[in-house]
Design a protein that fits this description.
125 residues, seven-stranded mixed beta sheet, four-stranded antiparallel beta sheet, globular
Length: 125
């Protein structure tokens, strides 16, 4: 059974750090690009960051570039999103997703095959 489980969300003050984890199972991890999307109330779903598990290539949205870092631990089938210098506008539900065909040059929702349930990140001012 394919499963993606997010963890690490919570409440943090502006300027603080938070690390999200995405634990994957039920598919060949090294064949997929793993990405983080987020969606806040009243806003469109945004592709935040993704990483190719095979070659390590990464993508970051302009809104998080320089603040967030994505990494993968292939031995654990886990992808992490280290979020630093958090802003109130980062508040959203963060979703982990897996794509077989994504090139990691952009994040297109319909290229992602599997999705987690999401984890809430709330940044207070």
């Amino acid at each position: 059974e394919v499963q993606l489980v997010e963890s690490g969300g919570g409440l943090v003050q502006a300027g603080g750090p938070l690390r999200l984890s995405c634990a994957a199972s039920g598919f060949t991890f090294d064949d997929y690009t793993i990405g983080w999307f987020r969606q806040a109330p009243g806003k469109e779903r945004e592709g935040v960051s993704c990483i190719s598990s095979s070659d390590g290539s990464t993508y970051y949205a302009d809104s998080v570039k320089g603040r967030f870092t994505i990494s993968s631990d292939n031995a654990k089938n886990t992808v992490y999103l280290q979020m630093n210098s958090l802003k109130p506008e980062d508040t959203a539900v963060y979703y982990c997703a897996a794509s077989l065909i994504s090139t990691a040059q952009a994040m297109i929702y319909y290229e992602y095959d599997y999705w987690g349930q999401g984890t809430q990140v709330t940044v207070s001012s």
